[in-house]
Amino acid sequence: MTIRIRAFYLATPFWYNAALSIIKPLYRSRIKKRADNDAQYQQECLERFGPFQPVKNLHAIWFHVVSVGETNAAQPLIEHYLKQGHPVLVTNTTKTGQARAKSLFLKAPYEALFQAVYLPADQKYLVKHFIEKYQPKLLALVETELWPNLIDQAKQLHVPCLLINARLSEKSAKGYAKVPSLTRPMLQGLDQLLAQDHAALERFIALGAKAESSQVVGSIKFDIHAPQHAVEQATQLKADWSLVGRKIVTIASTHAPEEQTLLTALKPYLQRHPELLCIVVPRHPERFDEGFAVAQTLELRTQRRSLGQAILSDTQVYLADSMGELWQWLALSQACFVGGSLNEPGGGHNILEPIALQVPTVLGKNYFNFQTIVDEFVAVNAVLVAQDADQAIQQLTELLENEQQAQALNTAAQRIMQKNTGSLAKHIAVIDQYL
Q1: pLDDT at 6 over 80
Q2: CA distance 173 to 204
Q3: Cα separation values, 22 from 52, 126, 353, 376, Å
Q4: Among residues 47, 70, 258, 353, which one is catalytic?
Q5: Known catalytic membership, residue 258
């Protein structure tokens, strides 16, 4: 009787499953539209709708992440368990996220232990079949990647389900609060909730998460470190392309219309200072051509990474239209702007990557996805926040020209990084209880 009540309580609402069935053809259409070719479309459909990829390792530790940012956040945890000899399965919801996961771990010495596939569509029978096929030891959902049937079926099939490095903005909490019949059972189905900060923890509990199995352990992002190979590659490129003596700023993880507004504001500086170079890294690969078109329209001398072009002595803009190479572009930089924060509605991206490389950092005002983290840096003048593109470029160029200001910003940022390290060890301690 207890088991029946529990299953009924966790079951997802009828309306949710009906909606999934209705939109499934649209989902397939979207996959086809963004696929580069038919083979890629067929492959993604195989992973989304079954019969799924052959299993490389049964009983893996399963991490589910959305895209690049969440994959980067989970990197230290995944790396830890691979080094311990545990097989790891990573599922993503975006093409960029999967590409990032494979670039990090689908290589020696981890290749035999690692597998990355798309998360199946959140239909009950698909998720059930996926879990039964892969038989994972546990499921670790990263940040806010909550799927009702996924959590429900993990519970029914006795797979421990943890929400790790959990964050929840005020805006997102209001959205979840509108569907309590979906949100509350979903959060109740979690075995552990490890929140980044107290504000997120309180929001999750208010929505239905169990207080007794929820705690604040900080953000794994603070335990981030640059891959050594990326730093070495940057050093090699600096020599190969004669970049010593050039002032380099990277505009990273940009969304529309940030390339347009930022490069327009930067153009006068580029014209007056031939030693200045701007590396542009759009967030999504489908916008690479758009970023190039912006630079061409502004008549800026531009080279492209995807064409194998080098940075020349007169190059003003270098379009880093590649996947998995952000670290090396940051390692080349003396200042960085983190995008997704000037566009509307924005939300921002991870400022800790450039800061980990001791690169003075600027971002826009719309950073609510990383509110608590950014606010801690802002409070001690460890990052600069721009209200618009003109101010962002002014701040970046001042950092390039004023070494004392850049050093003060970096020193304050490194203190925050050192104070907040340790979340990784706390996450490992909780996860190990289920292994």
Answers
A1: no
A2: 8
A3: 22, 15, 40, 44
A4: 70
A5: no
